[in-house]
Structure prediction request, 258 residues.
Amino acid sequence: MFDRFVTELNALDLSGTGLTGLRDATAGAKRARAALDAFEARLLTAAADRTFDPAAGIELLRCAGGCSQREARRRLRRAEALDQTPAVAGALAEGDITAEHADALAQAARATSAEAVDGDAALLDQAKELPADLAAREAADWAHRHQTAADREAKFRRQRAMRSHRAWCDGEGMVNFRTRLDPVTGAQARAVIDDIANRLYQLDGGRNAKPRNEFHPFAGTNSACAFTTPGRAGPLTRPGAAEQLLERLVAVCRRKRF
Prediction:
């Protein structure tokens, strides 16, 4: 079945196709891609049922589907959401919506409930008429309107549980951070980062890009920076900017005041 589909698809000649024909072909490709995504979700659900392991689909996608670990997990989450929302799954299988639409509706279901999303025919009909990015925005607004206090509390607990931080050095020797925080902690951390970044920007000369004399990035030892304090002679050695950032971020995460 799949071999025939691939052969016929590759045999199609688009060289003499006009814009109307290309538009129709794009719509057909959308339906085919959506149907394949829905079929794949069914495969993942079947794999979980056969092995009694919800994560069995990840290895299936990696070994047979050639997916990365990250993409496999994303598709598994979609399959789990579709299993809880049969109306959305049916729309995807028919090609009325795309996988992006399904992911947006799944996000709305996580914020409220699968029953609420699947039972709202108007929400699904709206998704069928809009591009995925606009449909995602409408789904987010819908979820916000339909969230209860318990829903918001549960969402915040999930966000707190998903907090993570990773630091690494890239090929140029620059230190990179990737941090995911809940909205409350994130707002505090962002204020700290923005404040430090602004100070470094000003010390580097601001828009003129002419470093001020009182900031010497590599002065001292142990990554120390030398700052000249107004009204005092000589530099005042403080921890480097990176160390300051880390210390203040730790303080935020520990809910300390600074």
Q: What stands out?
A: The chain has twelve helices and four strands. The longest strand covers residues 164-169.
